[in-house]
Amino acid sequence: MNNLPQDVVIKEVGPRDGLQNEKTLIDLDYKIDMINQLSNSGLSYIEITSFVHPKWIPQLQDAVDVAKKIDRRDDVTYAALVPNMKGLERALEADIDEVSIFMSASESHNQNNINKSIADTYPVLQEVVDEAKASGKSVRGYISTVFGCPYEGDVSVDQVMSVCDRLFSMGIDELSIGDTIGVANPVQVHNVLSTMKERFDENHLALHFHDTRGMALANTLAALQLGFKTFDGSLGGLGGCPYAKGASGNVATDDLVHMLSKMGVNTGVQLDELLKAGQTIESFLDKPLPSKQMELARRM
Questions:
Q1: What is the pLDDT of residue 128?
Q2: Number of CB atoms found within 10 A of residue 285's CB
Q3: Where does the Pyruvate carboxyltransferase domain start and stop, copy by copy (predicted)?
Protein backbone atom coordinates (compact mmCIF):
# COMPACT_ATOMS: atom_id res chain seq x y z
CA MET A 1 0.00 0.00 0.00
CA ASN A 2 2.82 2.41 -0.80
CA ASN A 3 0.46 4.41 -3.01
CA LEU A 4 -1.60 5.77 -0.10
CA PRO A 5 -1.50 9.55 0.40
CA GLN A 6 0.57 10.80 3.33
CA ASP A 7 -2.04 13.35 4.39
CA VAL A 8 -5.81 13.58 4.03
CA VAL A 9 -8.41 16.19 4.93
CA ILE A 10 -11.47 15.13 6.89
CA LYS A 11 -14.48 17.42 6.60
CA GLU A 12 -16.87 17.13 9.53
CA VAL A 13 -20.55 17.20 8.56
CA GLY A 14 -22.11 15.90 11.78
CA PRO A 15 -23.62 19.18 13.03
CA ARG A 16 -25.58 19.38 9.76
CA ASP A 17 -25.87 15.99 8.07
CA GLY A 18 -25.85 14.21 11.41
CA LEU A 19 -28.28 16.26 13.47
CA GLN A 20 -30.78 16.90 10.67
CA ASN A 21 -32.03 13.33 10.91
CA GLU A 22 -32.49 13.23 14.68
CA LYS A 23 -36.09 13.16 15.91
CA THR A 24 -35.12 15.09 19.03
CA LEU A 25 -34.79 18.87 18.72
CA ILE A 26 -31.35 19.58 20.15
CA ASP A 27 -30.85 22.62 22.37
CA LEU A 28 -28.83 25.44 20.87
CA ASP A 29 -26.29 25.38 23.71
CA TYR A 30 -25.49 21.71 23.07
CA LYS A 31 -24.95 22.37 19.36
CA ILE A 32 -22.62 25.25 20.18
CA ASP A 33 -20.66 23.16 22.69
CA MET A 34 -20.38 20.31 20.19
CA ILE A 35 -19.12 22.56 17.40
CA ASN A 36 -16.67 24.36 19.70
CA GLN A 37 -15.22 21.02 20.80
CA LEU A 38 -14.94 19.92 17.17
CA SER A 39 -13.13 23.19 16.41
CA ASN A 40 -10.54 22.29 19.04
CA SER A 41 -9.95 18.77 17.70
CA GLY A 42 -7.72 19.74 14.79
CA LEU A 43 -10.45 19.58 12.15
CA SER A 44 -9.97 22.23 9.49
CA TYR A 45 -13.55 22.14 8.17
CA ILE A 46 -16.93 21.86 9.89
CA GLU A 47 -20.31 22.03 8.20
CA ILE A 48 -22.26 23.52 11.06
CA THR A 49 -25.86 23.80 9.83
CA SER A 50 -28.25 24.18 6.91
CA PHE A 51 -30.24 27.19 5.74
CA VAL A 52 -33.11 25.19 4.31
CA HIS A 53 -36.62 26.28 5.29
CA PRO A 54 -37.30 25.29 8.93
CA LYS A 55 -40.48 23.46 7.97
CA TRP A 56 -38.39 20.94 6.00
CA ILE A 57 -35.60 20.47 8.55
CA PRO A 58 -36.92 21.78 11.92
CA GLN A 59 -33.86 20.37 13.72
CA LEU A 60 -31.76 23.10 12.06
CA GLN A 61 -34.16 26.03 12.41
CA ASP A 62 -31.63 27.82 14.66
CA ALA A 63 -29.05 28.04 11.85
CA VAL A 64 -28.33 31.77 12.15
CA ASP A 65 -27.98 31.59 15.95
CA VAL A 66 -25.62 28.62 15.69
CA ALA A 67 -23.40 30.41 13.17
CA LYS A 68 -23.30 33.61 15.18
CA LYS A 69 -22.73 32.11 18.63
CA ILE A 70 -20.01 29.50 18.07
CA ASP A 71 -16.41 30.39 18.90
CA ARG A 72 -14.72 30.61 15.51
CA ARG A 73 -11.10 29.73 14.89
CA ASP A 74 -9.14 31.28 12.06
CA ASP A 75 -7.80 27.87 11.02
CA VAL A 76 -11.26 26.30 10.61
CA THR A 77 -13.65 26.76 7.69
CA TYR A 78 -17.27 26.96 8.85
CA ALA A 79 -19.67 25.89 6.12
CA ALA A 80 -23.42 25.47 5.72
CA LEU A 81 -25.83 23.92 3.25
CA VAL A 82 -27.76 26.46 1.17
CA PRO A 83 -30.66 25.44 -1.12
CA ASN A 84 -31.62 28.73 -2.78
CA MET A 85 -31.31 32.50 -2.67
CA LYS A 86 -33.46 32.88 0.45
CA GLY A 87 -31.20 30.46 2.23
CA LEU A 88 -28.16 32.30 0.93
CA GLU A 89 -29.42 35.59 2.36
CA ARG A 90 -29.51 33.99 5.83
CA ALA A 91 -26.12 32.33 5.30
CA LEU A 92 -24.52 35.63 4.35
CA GLU A 93 -26.15 37.31 7.34
CA ALA A 94 -24.54 34.61 9.51
CA ASP A 95 -21.19 35.15 7.72
CA ILE A 96 -20.66 31.52 6.76
CA ASP A 97 -17.18 30.88 5.29
CA GLU A 98 -18.27 28.41 2.63
CA VAL A 99 -21.61 27.80 0.92
CA SER A 100 -22.60 24.24 0.07
CA ILE A 101 -25.10 23.53 -2.69
CA PHE A 102 -26.65 20.14 -3.31
CA MET A 103 -28.56 18.01 -5.79
CA SER A 104 -28.93 14.37 -6.81
CA ALA A 105 -27.61 12.32 -9.70
CA SER A 106 -30.98 10.53 -9.95
CA GLU A 107 -34.14 12.30 -11.06
CA SER A 108 -36.52 10.77 -8.50
CA HIS A 109 -34.31 11.44 -5.49
CA ASN A 110 -33.84 15.02 -6.67
CA GLN A 111 -37.63 15.39 -6.89
CA ASN A 112 -38.11 13.99 -3.39
CA ASN A 113 -35.18 15.86 -1.82
CA ILE A 114 -35.47 19.24 -3.56
CA ASN A 115 -38.98 19.08 -5.05
CA LYS A 116 -37.60 19.96 -8.49
CA SER A 117 -36.39 18.17 -11.58
CA ILE A 118 -32.67 18.06 -12.22
CA ALA A 119 -33.11 20.47 -15.13
CA ASP A 120 -35.03 22.94 -12.96
CA THR A 121 -32.46 22.70 -10.15
CA TYR A 122 -29.51 23.93 -12.23
CA PRO A 123 -30.59 27.59 -12.61
CA VAL A 124 -31.47 27.84 -8.90
CA LEU A 125 -28.01 26.61 -7.92
CA GLN A 126 -26.25 28.75 -10.51
CA GLU A 127 -27.82 31.86 -8.97
CA VAL A 128 -26.63 30.79 -5.51
CA VAL A 129 -23.09 30.09 -6.76
CA ASP A 130 -22.85 33.41 -8.58
CA GLU A 131 -24.02 35.45 -5.58
CA ALA A 132 -21.91 33.48 -3.10
CA LYS A 133 -18.81 34.03 -5.22
CA ALA A 134 -19.63 37.72 -5.60
CA SER A 135 -19.80 37.87 -1.80
CA GLY A 136 -16.32 36.38 -1.48
CA LYS A 137 -17.39 32.90 -0.38
CA SER A 138 -16.04 29.59 -1.60
CA VAL A 139 -18.62 27.08 -2.82
CA ARG A 140 -18.82 23.35 -2.37
CA GLY A 141 -21.19 21.07 -4.25
CA TYR A 142 -22.78 17.82 -3.14
CA ILE A 143 -24.04 15.21 -5.57
CA SER A 144 -26.21 12.54 -3.95
CA THR A 145 -27.11 8.98 -5.04
CA VAL A 146 -23.93 8.52 -7.10
CA PHE A 147 -23.67 4.82 -6.29
CA GLY A 148 -27.38 4.01 -6.08
CA CYS A 149 -30.82 5.57 -5.59
CA PRO A 150 -33.55 4.46 -3.15
CA TYR A 151 -36.16 4.93 -5.89
CA GLU A 152 -34.37 3.99 -9.11
CA GLY A 153 -31.68 1.55 -8.03
CA ASP A 154 -28.50 1.77 -10.11
CA VAL A 155 -27.48 5.19 -11.44
CA SER A 156 -25.41 5.23 -14.63
CA VAL A 157 -21.92 6.67 -14.54
CA ASP A 158 -22.82 8.75 -17.60
CA GLN A 159 -25.67 10.39 -15.70
CA VAL A 160 -23.37 11.07 -12.74
CA MET A 161 -20.71 12.59 -14.99
CA SER A 162 -23.28 14.80 -16.68
CA VAL A 163 -24.38 16.31 -13.37
CA CYS A 164 -20.75 16.67 -12.20
CA ASP A 165 -19.87 18.49 -15.43
CA ARG A 166 -22.73 20.92 -14.93
CA LEU A 167 -21.87 21.61 -11.30
CA PHE A 168 -18.21 22.29 -12.06
CA SER A 169 -19.24 24.54 -14.94
CA MET A 170 -21.13 26.68 -12.39
CA GLY A 171 -17.80 27.54 -10.75
CA ILE A 172 -17.84 25.41 -7.60
CA ASP A 173 -14.51 24.84 -5.85
CA GLU A 174 -15.05 21.24 -4.76
CA LEU A 175 -17.57 18.46 -5.33
CA SER A 176 -18.46 15.86 -2.71
CA ILE A 177 -19.43 12.50 -4.24
CA GLY A 178 -22.17 10.89 -2.16
CA ASP A 179 -23.13 7.30 -1.46
CA THR A 180 -26.36 8.55 0.06
CA ILE A 181 -27.91 5.20 0.98
CA GLY A 182 -24.73 3.26 1.66
CA VAL A 183 -24.96 0.76 -1.21
CA ALA A 184 -21.48 1.19 -2.69
CA ASN A 185 -18.81 -1.49 -2.57
CA PRO A 186 -15.03 -1.11 -3.08
CA VAL A 187 -15.04 -2.47 -6.64
CA GLN A 188 -17.83 -0.09 -7.65
CA VAL A 189 -16.04 2.79 -5.92
CA HIS A 190 -12.83 1.95 -7.80
CA ASN A 191 -14.65 1.82 -11.14
CA VAL A 192 -16.66 5.02 -10.70
CA LEU A 193 -13.77 7.05 -9.30
CA SER A 194 -11.36 5.80 -11.95
CA THR A 195 -13.75 7.16 -14.56
CA MET A 196 -14.05 10.46 -12.70
CA LYS A 197 -10.27 10.85 -12.50
CA GLU A 198 -10.09 10.79 -16.28
CA ARG A 199 -12.18 13.97 -16.45
CA PHE A 200 -11.75 15.77 -13.13
CA ASP A 201 -8.84 16.62 -10.83
CA GLU A 202 -9.18 14.40 -7.74
CA ASN A 203 -7.93 17.33 -5.64
CA HIS A 204 -11.31 18.97 -6.31
CA LEU A 205 -13.32 15.88 -5.38
CA ALA A 206 -14.30 14.58 -1.94
CA LEU A 207 -15.97 11.35 -0.88
CA HIS A 208 -19.11 11.18 1.23
CA PHE A 209 -19.72 7.57 2.25
CA HIS A 210 -22.67 6.42 4.35
CA ASP A 211 -22.27 3.30 6.46
CA THR A 212 -25.71 1.71 6.08
CA ARG A 213 -24.23 -1.69 5.23
CA GLY A 214 -20.94 -1.36 7.10
CA MET A 215 -18.94 -0.67 3.93
CA ALA A 216 -17.87 2.95 4.43
CA LEU A 217 -14.33 2.30 5.69
CA ALA A 218 -13.70 -0.31 2.98
CA ASN A 219 -14.93 2.17 0.37
CA THR A 220 -12.68 4.83 1.88
CA LEU A 221 -9.68 2.54 1.41
CA ALA A 222 -10.62 2.00 -2.24
CA ALA A 223 -10.70 5.77 -2.76
CA LEU A 224 -7.40 6.27 -0.91
CA GLN A 225 -5.70 3.76 -3.20
CA LEU A 226 -6.74 5.91 -6.17
CA GLY A 227 -5.16 8.99 -4.59
CA PHE A 228 -8.25 10.73 -3.20
CA LYS A 229 -7.44 12.84 -0.17
CA THR A 230 -10.65 14.47 1.07
CA PHE A 231 -13.35 12.62 2.99
CA ASP A 232 -16.53 13.68 4.76
CA GLY A 233 -17.26 12.22 8.17
CA SER A 234 -19.94 12.58 10.82
CA LEU A 235 -19.07 12.54 14.51
CA GLY A 236 -19.94 9.19 16.07
CA GLY A 237 -21.72 8.07 12.90
CA LEU A 238 -24.61 10.49 13.40
CA GLY A 239 -27.09 11.02 10.63
CA GLY A 240 -28.85 9.58 7.63
CA CYS A 241 -30.95 10.90 4.79
CA PRO A 242 -34.51 12.10 5.54
CA TYR A 243 -35.51 11.16 1.98
CA ALA A 244 -33.90 7.71 1.84
CA LYS A 245 -35.65 5.18 4.09
CA GLY A 246 -33.26 3.07 6.14
CA ALA A 247 -30.13 5.05 5.33
CA SER A 248 -27.86 5.31 8.34
CA GLY A 249 -25.23 7.90 9.13
CA ASN A 250 -22.04 8.86 7.39
CA VAL A 251 -18.82 7.08 8.11
CA ALA A 252 -17.98 8.02 11.69
CA THR A 253 -15.28 10.68 11.84
CA ASP A 254 -13.74 9.05 14.90
CA ASP A 255 -13.57 5.61 13.25
CA LEU A 256 -12.10 7.19 10.14
CA VAL A 257 -9.43 9.07 12.12
CA HIS A 258 -8.54 5.89 14.02
CA MET A 259 -8.18 3.82 10.84
CA LEU A 260 -6.09 6.41 9.03
CA SER A 261 -3.85 6.94 12.04
CA LYS A 262 -3.16 3.21 12.30
CA MET A 263 -2.34 3.17 8.57
CA GLY A 264 0.18 5.99 8.97
CA VAL A 265 -1.95 8.55 7.12
CA ASN A 266 -1.96 11.96 8.79
CA THR A 267 -5.27 13.76 9.43
CA GLY A 268 -4.18 16.36 11.98
CA VAL A 269 -7.23 15.43 14.07
CA GLN A 270 -7.05 14.42 17.73
CA LEU A 271 -9.24 11.40 18.43
CA ASP A 272 -9.63 12.13 22.15
CA GLU A 273 -11.08 15.58 21.39
CA LEU A 274 -13.54 14.07 18.91
CA LEU A 275 -14.72 11.64 21.56
CA LYS A 276 -15.34 14.51 24.00
CA ALA A 277 -17.56 16.19 21.40
CA GLY A 278 -19.33 12.89 20.82
CA GLN A 279 -20.00 12.49 24.52
CA THR A 280 -21.50 16.00 24.63
CA ILE A 281 -24.12 15.24 22.00
CA GLU A 282 -24.62 11.68 23.26
CA SER A 283 -25.53 12.99 26.71
CA PHE A 284 -28.24 15.22 25.24
CA LEU A 285 -29.68 12.57 22.92
CA ASP A 286 -29.58 10.06 25.78
CA LYS A 287 -28.62 7.27 23.40
CA PRO A 288 -25.31 5.78 22.29
CA LEU A 289 -23.71 6.97 19.08
CA PRO A 290 -23.08 4.03 16.74
CA SER A 291 -19.35 4.41 16.01
CA LYS A 292 -16.88 1.77 17.18
CA GLN A 293 -14.66 4.36 18.87
CA MET A 294 -17.58 5.76 20.86
CA GLU A 295 -18.61 2.24 21.84
CA LEU A 296 -15.07 1.50 23.00
CA ALA A 297 -14.93 4.77 24.97
CA ARG A 298 -18.13 3.81 26.83
CA ARG A 299 -16.56 0.52 27.88
CA MET A 300 -13.37 2.06 29.25
A1: 98
A2: 16
A3: 8-275
